[in-house]
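Listing 4. Sequential folding, example run.
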Amino acid sequence: MRASLLSRFFPPCFALALLATILPARADGLPPGVMRALKAAQIPASHVAVVVQPVDAAAPLVAHNASQALNPASVMKLVTTYAALDLLGPAYTWKTTLWTEAAPVEGVLNGNVYLRGSGDPRFAIEHLWSLLRQMQVRGIRQINGDVVLDRSAFNVPAIDPGAFDDKPMRPYNVGPDGLLLNFRALRFTLLPDNGKPRVLQETPSEGLRIDNQLKSSAADCSSNWKDFIQTRLIPDNGGSRLEFTGTYAALCGEKTLNLAPLPADAQASGLIRALWKELGGSLNGQVRAGAVPLGARLLTEHESPPLADAVRDINKFSNNVMARQVFLTLGNEAAKDIPLGGAAPATTERARQRVADWLAGRRLRFDELVLDNGSGLSRSERISAGSLNRLLLDAWKSPVMPEFVASLPIVGIDGTMKKRLKEAAATGRAHIKTGTLDGVKTAAGYALDAQGRRHAVTFLINHPRAQAGSAAIDALIDWVAQRRHGEPRGVLESD
């Protein structure tokens, strides 16, 4: 029954409300192309949840398993980033500061230097170099004390980086850190050279030695070329030796490999010592953990780019570490302004509560929602397709909508959707965030139909064969892109 027919018997406002109660019960069909792709992938429709709804409509076109709580993988970043944009504002920034207790005398500082973080998700090597150079400009060339690392903006327990997928050196497994330096990552370049692969260390780290035992392979360069390389960190004469074994295909040419082999303090020490030495400075003390003492004086600071830039990186490229940093910042949104000895540091529990309170304040009650770390890199996080759809519709009406939508990958153009749906009807006409875990394949965002009407789109798959579900997700996005008003919604599901 359509609104035009209902309006013959009821006032227009009542007819629309009645239609909203009728359509979800009838609109549980999946488009034929989606059903075919699911069957080809051997994924039962019962393991899939889909909602498609025009942003200006009161009811969905498709609502399949909409209330089922599922693991969203990285699509959970939509909750974190929308909350951050709305609560903190797109222009929010983090500050990383340098403090001293004494003034230098003829270039010599007889005391400690304190490096204090506020949770900046992207404090990179160039920003650290700039801070160290500012310290030299302010008259310090020799440090007779220590460099003290203050991570107190966050109060989070240390995590086992190998617990999630037994890949402890992959940078996406790095835990949140109040003073995150360069994602705690080291960048290496691999390239073939007369039958033996070379390993070039791009990121400096004093005290780390590279032991290259890689062998060349004549095999094709596969998409999982990283899995053929094993790394091991070995103590070595007061420093560390990073051993590379396994094979590297010569046909891969030059590739970049980012690793996080070192504990936080060791990584910071190696990087700070190397950069300070490159700048011509000397450090006679240690690089160690600690806190800025009362009475210390601010020497200089680095202010991050705005939150909107960080959100773009998080959603376009599905950066888990940055998402966790932003999520924790919600647990203490004023971290950059905490006075010495001031407010309590951010905690995961406080971040979860703030998101829950924010959702309630926006009348978005998601009873099934389970937030772990806000990044989607979790086996416990849960949300339904219906709740994600409501979030997308709410975001569309929000003042931060432009920044939120612009942060999502454009289908066939950039981010994690760059290589999908090339030269399809949806190319350039949909902004879609994707998610992937073992047994999980997801997507959510916005898509324009053939007449320029925008739709919120959510597709969640939780099944052992989920990785084969990309074609079904693409089929749904393309179905929306080709759809015209008045066309059939879909077909009733069948297994």
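-- end of first protein; second protein begins --
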Amino acid sequence: MCHTEVKALKEASKHAALACSVCHEKTKEHLANPGPDTRPVTKLDPAVCGSCHKNQYSSFFDVHYPEGGARKEKGTPVGRSPMQDKLLAPYGFTFEHNEPRGHAYMVIDQFAVDRFQGGRYQFKGGWKNYAKNGKTWDVLEDKGESYKLTESAMAGNPTCIQCKTSDLVLKWKYLGEKGGKWDRTSKVTEVVKDVHNPVGCIECHDPHGAKPRVIRDALIAAIDKDPAKNIFAKNGKTDLKVVSFRDGFRKIGVMEQTDSRLMCAQCHVEYNCGPGSQWSNGAKVGFNDIRTNHFPLQNALQLLQHYKDLDFFDFKHAVTGARLIKLQHPEAETYAGSVHDKAGVQCHQCHMPKLKGKDGKMFSTHGVVKPINMVKESCVTCHPGDSVAKKKYEIQTIQNYVKGKMRKAEYWLGQLIDTYKLAQVTGVAPSVLDQARAKHEEAHVLWEYWTAENSDGFHNPDLARESLTKSIAASKAGVKILNDAMLAAKQENKK
């Protein structure tokens, strides 16, 4: 009678017969005396959905025990970015920047990493419990405000956290503006105590009508701004209807047909969630600024110009002073326009393949696997003429090639930084240093995008090659500018 937007979603849906009390506590009291003082409590524990969708729920918490274990640091000789500490100095990610684990760990690993609040949050029972998942505070313990590990950072912010959990969906106003229990400026150590679960079922499935949906505010804002130009549009349209709740307090995007490219893009994108500075004048950008909850939806070739237009950068490099962007995990932008994307393949077909449950029924695994570890289920279903060995060989071949280009891009960025330092010491003119610094800014985005993107180029090998070779070329150009200036100065001194 009151919640018309809920009624519209629920009617004639798969969940039409479900009573509101299944997902909301204290409904009787609210119906007897409607009002804010008797507002029902929404059950956000994904176990509520799991009571019916048992296979999907249990598979979400499956531990895959990946080869090499957890906490695989990117900045090691065998990691994705061996020169990370040099190329990202002095940014907080240099303290610890790991390969991701499964979704069940996304909150736990965020809180436990050395760059988050000085390592204040640790696994109960120590190393033997690293495979444990579940409720955040059943797994982790708070060592207290005075606890700080050496060689750790104090990073962490509410915008990042609310992207990794569904627990804050009713306490976070659209885009993190003030008005909810938590907002972009909230104290991070207070927000974490309200986080008990990772991203849950309600992130991608509307509980009222069972339709596919998105709830991530910055994604909705980016698509709503210009639907015809976003990377998910087909024929200038996106199957996304925006529904507003409580006069715009929060919004969701509901779809008629599943589009897991959009659903996964709630997290698997480049985004900005932290403070920084303005490109134009160096002025600080704080959490009160809407730019600290922003999705560009642009790929590696477009991002530098996008952030210049946005007038934002994350940090300055410790040696060159270049204005650098810290890239996140841009899988959605990478995949857009790829061979698989053009063929109509969606994320879930590769990362959530069909399996047979213990009850004998087929279901989509919600463990979100790496296809290379389940080639038969993820790849051969679409390529029945190929063997598992052949498809795995093809994946590894692409990744080998892209990793090679990543290493070369890193090498030349390192050369640019070293040459800049030498040129600075030898008195090269500031105007020349400015030219080299601009090349550093260009080369960095084109390289670091691929250390953040988690497919090692497989999602779009053509884009990876173009971007990384342009990074190499930009670094080489910067080195040449500096070497030419130093040579000219040396020849002038001989006269």
